[in-house]
């Protein structure tokens, strides 16, 4: 957990905390407390919880004279840290009309000032540890920046008015070439974080894995390709689905990806943070579950890549793309793919489902104390996604980053690319 930055940690703290406040600028007061599903959290809770993280993990540990803004917030805004104490149940975060939005922002400003003071006052023997924890808190905040956008989108989607979060300029697009497959010989390769710079504990240690020869698609699957699956009756044919996936499809009557709609003329549209738009066939398909990605892959006679295949393939690809920094907040069909890279759009646009279950790497060790609950305790019934999305901050993305969600979840900006064996 080592921080490596060209800017000072204080400057980085102000910058990232500022991004969060910018993301909530388009919201009205009423928008801050909505929780339309147990998977989503109100925007007010996000800005309070990220503040609580700095207060509880850093200020209360290292500032001897620290006075809490409100002791009750330790219960209200703890997320899931059982070693710290009880907390407001996740599905009841939306019942908290108090504290008010203004009070939460006052809390945020108070903690920001206290962190700034701590950085200026910290003794040399604790400075490195404090800065490393602050940097982790900033990585945590960037995760919640993406969650804020994901949750606002879902909360607005269930509103019959289909509100617009913010207007964005659509990028110019051109017809994309069909995806091809790049061959990889495999063999004994290394994946995992090498310890240079920041990484979460679940990304380490770097270790060897054996890969059989494989092929990986040059681009993620598009809306147009997924529409072919729909039109072929893909959601009605159990032979393409894992058993659990087929049960979910029947239970929830899935007929298309989340946020797909039809207008009065039965033309496909899609709900975005910029409102309802016509479905762009060349955009990467997004907001699909692992089960849908897996079923499509079987329908095509292909498969999903393992996370080791994905990471190994991405090691020669520059980290750039359509991320939160672009301000589009939607996957795009861009004509600006680098011609020097065989694989394109590995980073940004959509998180890509892999065929790998979320489990510890050989020799992996969780962090000590409460932060040991950050990742390790979720290593069950989750699948790995890689690459980052249109809502992920660019500086938050790493080729070793292991995102994870239950296989039925669809509200994240999730897509996929195909893989196949060489034989």
TrEMBL record:
Record domain Sulfatase-modifying factor enzyme-like: where: 179-419
* DinB-like domain ranges (all copies): 13-148
Pathway entry = Amino-acid biosynthesis; ergothioneine biosynthesis
The superkingdom of the source organism is Bacteria
Q: Which SUPFAM superfamilies match?
A: C-type lectin-like, DinB/YfiT-like putative metalloenzymes
Chain segments annotated as transmembrane = none
This protein's UniProt keywords? Iron, Oxidoreductase
Can you say what this protein is called?
Ergothioneine biosynthesis protein EgtB
List the taxonomic lineage.
Answer: Bacteria, Bacillati, Bacillota, Bacilli, Bacillales
